[in-house]
Every structure is written in structure tokens, then in C-alpha cells.
């Protein structure tokens, strides 16, 4: 198990897009802009700002252009937008994002359910998007949904994951995001999958997108670090959810991830206190309790005053 | 990172004592007995049944004798009671438990706050308890509260942990429970502490008692397994809490632990489906939502039918 590490662990906050998209309340545009501006100052490596989907499909993100235009951009932060297709790419070109994110399911049933395409048809569409990106000097992250488990097919053979990864590679993509779409992955699966992907495509930067649906997000991050992954998605407050498990938790919370890395003396460059201030704002914004454990319990080693009279509860 | 293992991972369910003790609702004695009888059939290695504390101090456990007398005992399950002092030992002798559990804080401030004794005074009291146990052929688990962090002192020097472990060893104890009392431990701390303890006292069986207060319970269990620990406490439904972080989650849920072990193909011998049936009963019993993620989200790879019309939400 890795105990010491000189590498920086990069963190991308996907709360503004992946998180807020799942909220019932429509979040005012100015609040989104403030959230992104606040996150920009925390030290995160990237922020998933928005998505260029059709406003009727996702009304929460109808303000994509306005948000991208009005945020304050920090030099060290990569601002990314999710680009689902060629029509979206045409809009995205005008947004001047640092990175476009593709989201493609590696399993046939989820690919068809989500985008009404086969895996190969979806990859062909994405190839056109990548071409537009590269013509406009925008880097692309190839996302692999259902890579660590599919709601319709269960466990996914590694060959299916590799098939999409190699397709992305042949398009010139050198950053691939591996997603546990429904939060079903375990540390062994994460470790073996990432180890094999890194061995197969050593010049690709792999990031992990993990949900805490079944309590394993931080264990899976630990496994990912051990396999060589140095880049993780997370969502402020743990925003987001899982459409297949209503009421279940969503993305791993950025503050939970940074808190664990801090305790382990692994460097992320992200300021936990700032995150905790932001998550208080976010809780007010969305109007319900956040899933972030650090938001609820506070960081470890908030030392208390010893009580003056004997406590009656045996604390074990 | 350990990927394959022939060892059995033992699980002790502490819900009936450590969990229910934190509940506001008084749980009827017959419901406790049913819970313990149900847990006995799941394949758990041990159940922490009750505690012989003064009924005025912990009214929830005033029925200790009645519960111990009326449960059905399974041959392969160890039924333990928490024994805080000599007076408790005298009661416990009559209960015919398989194991007595001692709970002693390794830090001075917590030891004084919890039991109004110094560490050495507390160890002296426990030595008398151990003597009574051994005279009655009962094995003893020496519990070490605050071993992985203290609410009043923060991080605890390893020497303080070793001091209590060696004191227990010299009393003839060969099973020591290491507790993350306030759920502040991280995987690196768990790994290094357990590795060092096992090296110092190789003929002791160490178990880990972890809380999920800051989302790291399963990551810490992973670290514990990597360090050589093969015995974990857990609590059905994630019952229990932390008096220093009201509203925060408590013990790692037995079903969350077993679910992760199952996915990783590590053997616990515990039946997840039975646990999930029991946690439904427990939720009714305590009258509030349980923290167990598997109770909320269901196990991984519950394969769904693919939807017939295109889903509008981009599931990432």
C-alpha cells in the first residue's frame, strides 16, 4: 500500500454540472457563477462548468453560455464543458473552454439507452467532436461511463473498457476519465481495471469519477492511487445522485476526498477550509442536507475541551 | 495492495449493544432478543450482546441479564458482553458470555472523562476484571478506545497505544480491539498503527472497530486488511453514532462491510441477503433512516431492465 507520494493528486470539481443537474430546484445563474468563482480559488485543478445539451432536455443547464461567459477564469484552473455531440461542439467552440469532456457508455445497452446509439455509432459521433476540438486547439477528455459497472449489464468485461479507451486513443485523446456511473465498483475492480489500462496506454492520463452510492468511494480512490491514478473527479458537498438508486448518495464529496488526502499527507493543493465554507453556501442553495461527511461531522482532530463532569455514555 | 486472500475475515456485529445504546427510543427487550437471534443465523463470528453497566447510567441496557438468558446461542457465534469494572464482572460471571470486552481509553483525558480514572488506574481495575474472567474460563478482548484519535488530544502517539496493548498482553489477553472512537482515522494511520502493533505483539489477534463518521470506514478496513487485520467490528444498519459529532454517521454498517468483501471475493462467511432483511426490521425498530448505504441503494449489480425510451438525464 502506498504511504508516501511526491506526486500531486489533481482534483476536478464536477459539482456545477454533474451535481446541480440532479437538483430539483432550479439554481439561479448568478449563484452558479459565484459557486464556480469560489471553487476557482480553492486550488482545484479543474471545474466541470456546464454542458452544451439541448435546453429542453436539461433545463438546469440552459444558461451554459451565460455561465461560461461570466465566470472569472483562474490561470491554474481548467474549465471544462461536457460536449455530447456535433451540434453541441458548434456551441462549445464559442465558449472557449479549456477542455471538452465526452461522455460515452462502454456498454451497448447503456449507450443505446442514454444516446440511442450503438457503441460504434457513438464513437463515430465523438470522433467528429474531437476533430472540431483539435481544430480549435481544445484538449479533450474522453469519458467512459459504465466502465466500472452497468445498470443493465452488471460487471463489464475489461475488453469492452479497453475497446473504448483504444478508440479514444486513436482519435488523439490523451486524457480518459473512467466513471463508476452507478457507484457499484469495489476497490479490487478499480485497482485491476486502472492497472491494466495504465499498462496498455501508458501515455494516457487516466482520471477516476467515483460515486459514493455504496460507501466505497474513498476506498476506491485509495485503490486508484495504489494503481497509479493521480486525478479524481469529486463534487462539492457530494452533490449529484444516481437515477438507478433514488435517495442514494452521489459523487464523492470534494471535501471528503481532500480531507482524506490531507490526513494521509498526500498533496492535492486544495484548501479544505475554503471547501467547507463553500459547502455551507451550497447547502443553502440546494435546500437539503448534503451527503458530504466532513460537512456534517467536521474535519478529524477538531480537538474538543474535555468535559468537566463524567460523561454518562460509554464512547467506544 | 492485497487482491487475493485465503484467510477468513471475521465480523462481529456490535449493533445490539454499541448501536442500540445510542438510540433515543427504548427498544423492547423481546425485539433485542429477536435481533440477536436473527444476527446469529447470518454467519457473523461474534455479537456484542449487551453491557453490564449500571441501569441508571444506561437505561437502554437495563435488561442485560434477561437478554443474555433468553437468546438462542449458536455454536459458531461468540456472544460477548462489555464489562466496565469489577462490579460488572460479578454480574457478568452469571451471564455465561463467551467473551468479555474491556473498554479502556489509551489517552489520559478521555480515560478520565469517561471513567474518572487515570490510564494506570483504569488498567489496574481491568486487571482485576481479567483475573475474574480467567478464573471463570472466559476469554477477554481488551478494547482500546481513542487508539486512532482522541476528541480531546487529537492524534495519539503510537507509544500510548502500545503502552495499553502491552499492559493487556501482560494480563494474558490475546485479543485486542483497536477503536477509532470518533471516526477520525485515515487509511495511512490505520495501516501504520496496525502493522506496528502486529509486529510488536505477533501472537495477539487484533480487531478493528471503525466508525464511518468521515466516510473513511471502508477505506480504513481496506488499509487494515493490507496491514494484516482479519477481524472487524460492524453494526447492522450502521447503528450507533458519535457524541462529539451529533448527526454524523456511526459504526460502519455490517451490510456495507460484507458487501465490499463479497465484491472483492474476500470470504467473511456472512450472508448479505439475511443482513438486508434484518436491517429492514431494524429501521422499523429505531424509527429513523439507517446510515447503511447498501440498505439505501441495494447491492451492486442489481441489474435493471434497460428503459424503452431514451432517458433524458445524462447519467454519468
TrEMBL record, chains A, B:
The keyword Lyase is annotated on this UniProt entry: yes
Keyword Zinc-finger: no
Domain of life (superkingdom): Bacteria
Gene Ontology molecular-function annotations: hydroxymethylglutaryl-CoA lyase activity; metal ion binding
GO BP term, pick one: L-leucine catabolic process
Keywords: Lyase, Metal-binding
Residue intervals of the Pyruvate carboxyltransferase domain: 9-276
Family note: Belongs to the HMG-CoA lyase family.
Protein name: Hydroxymethylglutaryl-CoA lyase
